[in-house]
Structures are given as C-alpha cells and as structure tokens.
Design the sequence.
C-alpha cells in the first residue's frame, strides 16, 4: 500500500461510509481498479481506516456523549445486536460474497428500494423527528434491517436508513441514528481486524495507514455535515439513481 493509494482509499471511505451507497462496495471496486492486491494487510487497511469514520462521528455528535443520553445508547446497542449475531455466525459465508458482480447487483437492488420507498414516503407523517425520540422497538427493527448490509454492496448506512424510515423516522433522524449505530459496528469490525492483523504491517505500511486514516477522518467529518444539510432540502432519490447507474456500470465491466 503506497501513500497515493492510501489517500485515494481514505477519500473514498470518508465519502461513502455514512452515505447510503456502500463504502465496502466502493473500496472493493477501487482496490481492483488501482491494482491493489487482496492481501490480509491490505484488507485490514480498508477496515481499520473505518476507525477514522468513528472519530468523525464523535467529533460531530460529541453532545450526545453525556449521561442524559444514556437511553439513546442503550437503543443503539439494541440495534447492533442482530448484525453482531448474524455477522459472527456467518462470517465465513459472507467473505465468499465479496465480488464485483455481487456488489453491482446489490447496488441496483438498493437503488430500486430507495426509489420505491421515496414514492410512498411522507415525511410530514413521521412521528419521530429527532434521534433522541427513537423507541426501543424502532431500534430493534432498524437493527434487523441493518443485517442486510452484510451482503457487499448493500450499504450499512443504506440498510439502517431504510429501516429507520419504514419505522417512522424522518430522513434527518434516520441518517443520524445510522451515524450513531455505525460506532459499535465499525469499532467491532476495525478492532477485530487490528488485533488479528497488526503484526502484518511493516513500518512503511504504518505510514500509509496513518495517511489513509487522517484522510478518511477529515473527509468523513465534512461529509456528515454536508449530508445532513442535504437532507433538509432533498430526498434519497438521487442516491437511488446513483446506485442503479453505478451498479449497471459495474456489471457491464464485470461481464465484458
């Protein structure tokens, strides 16, 4: 992993982690196009720079980390449970799904789901307009929806946002709960890979990792802010269309 590739992957991770367009899918495709080998160290690099995204959430939502929001974090923990259990049980099966065709198909499926959801979704009818208002029942169903993110190309953010909208959250609250829910998910995945593969990194690798980490944090920090502003005026239709177009391009490249 050289510095330039680390910066490119850091930018991609920072932009895509909290948008409903699958960071894993983009990283898989970018790595193939950059000619980055699928070694354990390089795969661990892609997971570990997700820790930077966690820090970006902490920086943007530091007001939520106080005793008065204890119940909110209990709900986040509840929402994490389904993904944690299924991911642990079927981890070996999930690894076999990491391919460009699978990513392409799931991009299209996710895009269609967003377009269909936005056709019937009425934000004025949503009872939950603030992330602190999420109920325990809503948190559990959002967690169930997030399980689909185990399929590469589906998007963790996309799955949890769709689940939240179906449970009665408005777009902004759906996105923000997805941000917070990313903390235990990314911490678990990144921490596990760091403990498992830290011995694979040489001094040069650690330099690239630091550069990718910092790049990911900066980009993710501003992406979160801009995404929330975007949702104050627009819907997820543009993301649905993007997913479909990108998915079609991926399948065309994979089968030509």
Sequence:
């Amino acid at each position: 992993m050289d510095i330039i590739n680390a910066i490119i992957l850091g930018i991609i991770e920072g932009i895509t982690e909290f948008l409903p367009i699958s960071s894993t899918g983009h990283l898989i495709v970018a790595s193939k196009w950059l000619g980055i080998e699928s070694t354990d160290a390089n795969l661990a690099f892609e997971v570990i720079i997700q820790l930077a995204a966690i820090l970006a959430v902490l920086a943007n939502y530091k007001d939520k980390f106080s005793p008065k929001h204890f119940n909110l974090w209990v709900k986040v923990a509840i929402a994490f449970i389904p993904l944690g259990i299924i991911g642990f049980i079927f981890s070996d099966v999930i690894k076999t799904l990491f391919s460009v065709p699978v990513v392409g198909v799931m991009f299209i499926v996710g895009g269609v789901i967003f377009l269909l959801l936005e056709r019937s979704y009425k934000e004025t009818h949503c009872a939950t307009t603030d992330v602190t208002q999420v109920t325990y029942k809503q948190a559990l169903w959002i967690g169930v929806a997030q399980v689909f993110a185990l399929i590469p190309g589906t998007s963790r953010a996309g799955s949890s946002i769709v689940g939240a909208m179906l449970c009665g959250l408005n777009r902004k609250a759906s996105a923000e709960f997805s941000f917070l829910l990313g903390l235990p998910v990314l911490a678990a995945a990144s921490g596990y890979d760091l403990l498992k593969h830290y011995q694979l990194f040489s001094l040069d690798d650690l330099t690239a990792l630091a550069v990718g980490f910092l790049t990911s944090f900066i980009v993710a920090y501003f992406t979160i802010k801009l995404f929330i502003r975007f949702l104050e005026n627009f819907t997820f239709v543009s993301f649905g269309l993007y997913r479909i177009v990108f998915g079609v391009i991926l399948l065309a490249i994979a089968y030509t």
